[in-house]
TrEMBL record:
<keyword id="KW-0732">Signal</keyword>
<protein>
    <recommendedName>
        <fullName>Transcobalamin-like C-terminal domain-containing protein</fullName>
    </recommendedName>
</protein>
<feature type="signal peptide">
    <location>
        <begin position="1"/>
        <end position="21"/>
    </location>
</feature>
<dbReference type="GO" id="GO:0015889">
    <property type="term" value="P:cobalamin transport"/>
</dbReference>
<dbReference type="InterPro" id="IPR027954">
    <property type="entry name" value="Transcobalamin-like_C"/>
</dbReference>
<dbReference type="Pfam" id="PF14478">
    <property type="entry name" value="DUF4430"/>
</dbReference>
<dbReference type="GO" id="GO:0005615">
    <property type="term" value="C:extracellular space"/>
</dbReference>
<dbReference type="InterPro" id="IPR051588">
    <property type="entry name" value="Cobalamin_Transport"/>
</dbReference>
<feature type="domain" description="Transcobalamin-like C-terminal">
    <location>
        <begin position="71"/>
        <end position="131"/>
    </location>
</feature>
<dbReference type="GO" id="GO:0031419">
    <property type="term" value="F:cobalamin binding"/>
</dbReference>
């Protein structure tokens, strides 16, 4: 009886864990521009379980929804988001693409890491906002 209960519990775990651990994580990406204020654009994509935002942006770019981005490699901090949809940040003009995240409860956070380190949670709205500094 005890063995049957244990076996049932083990089977339950095996059937539940993979679904939770390996499912894709849906996100949306909103492209905004606080400098010239054109209409925002939104896109949908996903990251794999515990995948980084860079993977989601790369997938989005490949999905032909009209989203494009480039990044440079910083020797210390990794990928720096350089341009989105053809518009690049500029040291002369003191502009850059800020990374913000709107959580499902509508709070907006400013991640303290870039696109190579941020791990989106399900239904995050990633906000790429062209801004000045
Ligand atoms: C100034 C600064 C910026 C400026 C840099 C432009 C400029 N010309 O000044 C701006 C405003 C653009 C910026 C943006 C961001 N930053 Co910044 N930034 C700094 C700061 C305060 C100083 C960097 C510096 O001048 N170092 C001295 C120079 C001589 O060294 P350097 O190697 O040439 O510096 C370059 C890099 O630091 C790079 N850089 C700056 N920030 C970031 C962030 C990432 C992810 C990368 C890859 C590179 C990078 O730009 C600097 C100038 O070229 C540091 C904190 C600190 N006190 O060090 C944070 C810091 C580097 N930034 C940080 C972050 C998180 C960001 C953002 C992701 C914030 C956001 N949520 O939008 C964005 C980058 C978004 C993107 N497009 O990818 C983090 C990085 C931590 C990490 N492990 O990823 C730091 C450490 C601050 C923190 N929160 O702890 N940043």
């Amino acid at each position: 009886m005890k063995a049957t209960a244990l076996l049932t519990a083990a089977l339950l775990l095996i059937s539940v864990i993979p679904a939770k651990s390996f499912g894709n994580t849906p996100i949306t990406v909103l492209v905004a521009n606080s400098v010239t204020n054109p209409p925002n654009q939104t896109y949908s994509t996903f990251v794999v379980f515990r995948g980084i935002l860079l993977g989601g942006l790369t997938r989005l770019q490949a999905s032909n929804q009209g989203f494009g981005f480039t990044y440079t490699e910083d020797p210390n901090y990794g990928p720096f988001l350089q341009s989105v949809n053809g518009l690049a940040g500029s040291a002369e003009e003191r502009t850059y693409w800020q990374l913000l995240v709107k959580k499902p409860n509508n709070s907006i956070i400013i991640p303290d890491v870039g696109i190579g380190c941020y791990i989106p949670a399900a239904n995050d709205q990633i906000i790429l906002k062209y801004s000045t500094y």
